[in-house]
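Repro:
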Amino acid sequence: MHDTHLIEKTYHSIAALCRQNGIYRVNELQIEVDEESHIEGEHLLSHLIDRDSAMFGDWTTVHVEHKPYERLTAIIKSIDGYVRE
């Protein structure tokens, strides 16, 4: 249940960063989550596609690394995508 909230908050953070940087289509995403989290790349990508299928899709690769952070922590390390000129 807690991971569901973390995934949704992560989506909102990614979407905000994309808006700020003019990214309209995400090719690759790298995040780190706490070691206790059950979030995996495939699960996160599925949620992202459900929320915004124009920004995320089969072309998007999500890398999730588990690190010794506080519980319910996610760090967005990088976002690579197409930028509006």
